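Tokenised fold entry reproduced for absentees:

. . .
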Amino acid sequence: MSPVYVVGHKNPDTDSIGSAIVIAYLWNKWRETGKMSDVMDVSEEAIPARQG
């Protein structure tokens, strides 16, 4: 599998940097286990949000 680069925007602030770190962490864990359900239980660890 080819490498995946996770980057923020041109003038990153804290949420951009934090998001890039979290996505990179989850991606690496998913590649190790092969299943997202082994990495994160969405029903317990995520807060659903609606934009707009």
Summary: The chain has three helices and no strands. The helical segments are 14-33, 36-39, 42-45.
